[in-house]
Design goal:
Layout (H helix, E strand, L loop, with lengths): L11 E5 L3 H10 L6 E5 L2 H10 L4 E5 L7 H10 L8 E5 L5 H9 L2 E6 L5 H85 L6 H4 L1 H8 L3 E7 L5 E7 L5 H7 L6 H8 L3 E3 L9 H6 L3 E9 L2 E10 L7 H53 L2 H12 L5 H32 L8 E4 H18 L3 E5 L3 E7 L1 H17 L6 E9 L2 E8 L33 H11 L3 E6 L6 E14 L19 E5 L3 H13 L3 E5 L2 H11 L3 E5 L7 H8 L6 E6 L4 H10 L3 E4 L4 H12 L11 E3 L4
Parallel strand pairs: 1-2, 1-3, 3-4, 4-5, 12-14, 18-19, 18-20, 20-21, 21-22
Antiparallel strand pairs: 6-7, 6-10, 8-9, 9-10, 11-13, 13-17, 14-15, 15-17, 16-17, 22-23
Helix pairs in contact: 2-3, 5-7, 5-11, 12-13, 13-16, 14-15, 15-16, 18-19
The protein binds adenosine-5'-diphosphate.
Adenosine-5'-diphosphate binds next to helix 15 and helix 16.
Length: 741
């Protein structure tokens, strides 16, 4: 038996004696002691029993063979478990002092001599040890029970604590969940408000109308009680286009604040968000104080690096706007940027579409008018031809018919020239042939061109020139065209017997050309557009000659190409008009006696030449041939490229007039084939007067380039100059000398 004594276990007493008799006597003596006696006959046996279990007391014989009682006791004391087990030594011999001392040193509780007298002493002593062992065992048990109870209590406390901890964790977890749910809800609200703004902006024609429709959403869901939307005007100035939650009367005061004291102006100037917390704490933002706002944020609205406006939100409840809300509001500023940019583009497209529709309408009008204007001159030409066909027609009638046909064909040619010029100027193909321009010369030429019309209408045309010679740097032909257009208009838009006045004067370093008349005048609404393409005023009923609304466009373009300006003035319908052209003048010297350039006129006979006409259009070929023959020349002709080459090689004429668009072989190829082979001077005749065509003609071997229709006088002049190897005249309209090859 080992371990503490359990309840109900017998208490044991170990009796050690080598003598059987003694053992029995002791057993008898202790029979009434309430304990179990374990009787052993040697120290070794005793030690073995002690290993097996505890004893209340040991009765140990001192003299035993083998291991003595004292030796056994010494070994017993060495073991921790038995160090305090009471030992009563028994001896049959006289107790020596040394034995006694040894026994007590070994912790003997008594040392008795056998036979023990009186026996009760031993019995009582043993009984006492038995009892105290039982008590000690019970105490031990109780201590153990208490320890176990304490242990259980501790475990329960630990469990409780654990449970409490778990509950606490659960509670805080639930709290966290609640907070998360609240944040989710707030985020949803923000998302809802922002998506309402975004979808509102997506479909709104006018972004400024979106915020007022959402003011409830902003206030109820986001706690934003005030909003201000400013939009930038084209000049960059900010204008308040939508607002909500602004107290009565605050708007005027807001507008009166200096711009650097308002969040919106500062956000616009810095082009970055301005976020204000605890606005009531200071006086940095008087605008927020006026609006009663405690926290605000203002975002610039920027698209393609352009400031389109600002959008500001404010609350009266919180001291600061949460970061998530700020992020959401910034997002809405981005939506505003897209919406405002889209609105701007839509407006731009709408206005462009309107412009295009207007241009389309003007083009239709123009085409109708063009057809009319081109057909008109044909009628007198056809009737003139009819008269000429009548053999019995009077000479005077023939002359009139010829004069009318001449006027109308020139007019037609002029309309076509204007059209071609405008399109060439638009595509940048007009090049000025710059040189020294004598002002008196352009005035003289322009006046000469307009005189017949003015004279026909009995209009008085006065010309005033500067008292000194004025020279410009420019293109004589083009500047004459400018002046001629203006004078022609004055003649067209002035009643018969009206007055036209042309003055040329020097104004500072500029030449000022003024063409004024007392004609029909110009309506104020027409004046600002008068130089635009196809723009025409109401045409007078007695209008002598039509136009295409291109004359003034050409005037302005040509003047600007010369670095000058032109403007029109009129006091209104019936009050006459004045056109002023200013051009940089190059020099001014006292007027030299003018060089009376003889005007080209008549059909003076020249040395007869051999001229080839290579042209597939029979009418053109026939008329040119007849005119050349009338002028005294000999003409041979061909109607296609190959026949042309054969003709030139066979006839070797002085000059050949070659159409470029010939069947078979075109004019360029023809020129290449005969070049150098026949000595004939080649003149190109074409419908295109562009720079490229001129260059191609020069490359092919042509020496002059004439654009159809060509005035016969000019054609004759070029032919005769080439044939006699004189230089080509500069500035003859329609004649472009090619670079010599
Ligand atoms: P067009 O004469 O072919 O109509 P223009 O471009 O030369 O075209 O002129 C445009 C318009 O300006 C004319 O239709 C006419 O209404 C007005 N205008 C031009 N010159 C005068 C003028 N001297 N007096 C009154 N109106 C004029």
């Amino acid at each position: 038996m080992s371990g503490p004594l359990a309840e109900g276990d017998p208490v044991r007493v170990l009796v050690v004696d080598d003598d059987e008799k003694n053992l029995r006597a002791l057993a008898a003596l202790l029979a009434r002691v309430p304990a179990e006696l374990v009787l052993v006959r040697s120290g070794e046996e005793a030690l073995r029993q002690l290993l097996l279990g505890d004893f209340a007391v040991i009765l140990l014989d001192v003299q035993m063979p083998g291991m003595s009682g004292l030796e056994t006791a010494a070994l017993i004391r060495e073991r921790e478990r038995t160090r305090r087990t009471p030992i009563i030594f028994l001896t049959a011999f006289t107790r020596t002092e040394a034995t006694l001392l040894g026994a007590y040193r070994l912790g003997a509780v008594d040392f008795l001599t056998k036979p023990v007298q009186p026996e009760e002493v031993l019995r009582e002593k043993v009984a006492w040890f038995v009892e105290s062992h039982r008590v000690a065992a019970r105490l031990e048990q109780e201590r153990e029970r208490a320890r176990l109870a304490e242990l259980r209590e501790h475990e329960r406390a630990v469990l409780d604590a654990k449970r409490r901890g778990e509950q606490e964790a659960l509670r805080s977890e639930m709290q966290r969940h609640r907070e998360l749910a609240a944040r989710l809800h707030a985020a949803n609200e923000r998302l809802h408000a922002i998506s309402s703004i975004a979808s509102g902006l997506l479909f709104a024609d006018d972004p400024a109308r979106v915020l007022p429709q959402l003011s409830d959403v902003l206030a109820a869901r986001l706690g934003l009680h005030v909003y201000l939307l400013h939009q930038a005007a084209p000049d960059g100035a900010l204008a308040l286009t939508a607002h909500g939650g602004v107290p009565e009367g605050a708007l005027e005061k807001l507008a009166a604040l200096p711009p650097d004291r308002t969040v919106c102006a500062v956000a616009a100037a810095r082009r970055e968000a301005v976020v204000v917390e605890d606005a009531a704490a200071g006086d940095a933002w008087p605008d927020l104080a006026l609006l009663g706002i405690s926290a605000a944020a203002c975002f610039p609205i920027v698209a393609s690096e352009r400031l389109l406006g600002t959008v500001a939100f404010g609350t009266r409840e919180a001291k600061r706007l949460e970061p998530d809300l700020l992020a959401a509001l910034e997002l809405s500023a981005g939506h505003f940027a897209s919406a405002l940019e889209r609105a701007r583009l839509v407006a731009e497209l709408t206005s462009r579409a309107a412009d295009l529709a207007e241009a389309d309408r003007r083009k239709d009008e123009f085409l109708a008018m063009l057809a009319h204007e081109l057909r008109n001159p044909l009628a007198p030409v056809l009737s003139g031809l009819e008269i000429l066909r009548w053999e019995n027609a009077a000479d005077a009638a023939r002359k009139r018919a010829l004069a009318a046909a001449d006027r109308q064909v020139r007019h037609l040619a002029r309309l076509v020239d204007d059209l071609v010029d405008v399109s060439r100027i638009r595509t940048g193909k007009v090049e000025l042939r710059r040189g020294e321009v004598e002002v008196s010369r352009i005035v003289e030429d322009a006046v000469a061109a307009v005189e017949p019309l003015a004279r026909a209408q009995e209009q008085e045309l006065t010309v005033e020139l500067p008292d000194r010679r004025v020279v410009l740097d420019g293109d004589t032909v083009r500047l004459t065209q400018v002046l001629e257009n203006l004078l022609n208009n004055s003649a067209k838009y002035t009643d018969p017997r009206g007055h036209i006045r042309l003055t040329a004067s020097l104004d500072g370093g500029e030449l000022l050309l003024r063409v004024s008349d007392d004609g029909i005048g110009i309506a104020p609404d027409l004046l600002p557009r008068i130089f635009d393409t196809f723009v025409q005023g109401k045409q007078p009923a007695n209008r002598a000659r039509g136009g295409l609304g291109l004359g003034l466009t050409l005037v302005r373009s040509l003047v600007e190409l010369h670095g000058g300006t032109v403007r029109a003035e009129s006091d209104g319908p019936g009050k006459g008009s004045t056109f002023e052209v200013r051009l940089p003048a190059r020099a001014a010297e006292p007027a030299a006696p003018s060089d009376p350039t003889p005007r080209r006129n008549g059909h003076a006979r020249a040395r007869p030449l051999n001229v080839a006409v290579i042209e597939d259009n029979t009418d053109i070929r026939d008329t040119v041939r007849e005119l050349l023959e009338l002028a005294g020349h000999r003409v041979c002709e061909a109607s296609d490229g190959n026949a042309g080459v054969a003709l030139l090689l066979a006839e070797r004429p002085d000059v050949a007039l070659v159409d470029i668009g010939l069947p078979g072989l075109d004019g360029y190829e023809l020129a290449r084939q005969v070049r150098g082979a026949c000595g004939t001077r080649l003149i190109a005749l074409t419908g295109y007067g562009g720079h490229v065509e001129r260059e191609r003609a020069a490359e092919a071997g042509f020496e002059a380039h004439l654009v159809k229709p060509v005035e016969f006088e000019e054609l004759k002049d070029v032919i005769e100059r080439l044939a006699t190897r004189r230089p080509l005249a500069q500035g003859i309209e329609g004649v472009q000398p090619c670079q010599s090859t």
